[in-house]
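Request: Mind sharing a record?
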Amino acid sequence: MTTDGQPIVLDVVGKDIQGEGARLRERGPATRVELPGSVQVWAVSSYRGLRQILSDPRVSRNANVHWSAWKRGEIPVHDRE
């Protein structure tokens, strides 16, 4: 996993999806990214890495289980139309 350097700020309008994906993969199987609202998360860019993470019993896709900032209400929630 890459922990050095600044997180990659994801482009919400997707001007260069292929380039953004390449930058993520260059950083390794997992790297920090920034979502809208300055939310920082991990992005996994390899199939093997994703399989490892999803099979780990310490990991849950339920934000209420592992994401303290979510539980404290610090993550902005945007309505989708």
